[in-house]
Amino acid sequence: MSRWTKATAAALLMLCVPSVAPSAAEEGSMPAGVKGDMMTWFKDAENKLVQLAEATPEAKYSWRPSKDVRSTSEVFLHVAGANYGIPAIWGVAPPAGFSIDTYEKSLTKKADIVKALKDSFAHMEQGLSDADLEKPAEVFGTKTTVQGGYFLLLTHAHEHLGQSIAYARMNAIVPPWTARQQAAVKQMQEKAKPDAK
User: Of 20, 42, 46, 124, which one is least surrounded by beta carbons within 10 A?
Assistant: First the structure.
């Protein structure tokens, strides 16, 4: 197998590997067990949602694929609203004046929405206490535990991350982590090309 073919195969494999590794600072502070596993995937959703929010031009924040669905800004605020509203079910108080019914339409400026998204994940993570995870909770009529409620939040964040990626792609915005992977693949292929004679 030629050097270029090997480099291309390695580069394609790199595109298949999800970029979920937490930063060195985050990795050192991750707790062990189920809580640590959840936090790894919460950080993945948070990092990617924030990157998309920052990469999306402000003019595209009001964009929606059709009349009766959420706009780009409303999707980001919907995630933030859940991060505040769902933990409130088991006693993690949201910010003063927060209303889950109106939150996703409460902000329109890009800088405010990016900040709200970051703040909501920080708030939600503070409520993730080892002592509380096994406590019973009822979430939207389902009897579960606080841990089960956090699993719901985790799947919710990733569900709307997927929606946000689709919105970005429809607006010709390449997710920043994908752009970095593609640039790395191209660089590997360029380095591995046989010298032209």
Answer: 20
Residue-number span of the structural domain to which 154 is assigned: 35-188
| Cβ atoms of 76 and 117 closer than 8 Å | yes
Q: Is residue 22 part of a domain?
A: no
Dig out the tokens for 40 from the structure: 């790894």
pLDDT in tens for each of the 197 residues of the chain?
555 455 555 555 554 555 555 554 455 566 778 889 999 999 999 999 999 999 999 999 999 999 999 999 999 999 999 999 999 999 999 999 999 999 999 999 999 999 999 999 999 988 788 888 999 999 999 999 999 999 999 999 999 999 999 999 999 999 999 999 988 888 888 888 776 44
Count: domains in the chain: 1
The whole-angstrom distance between residue 106's C-alpha and the CA centroid of its chain comes to: 20
Q: Is residue 99 in a domain?
A: yes
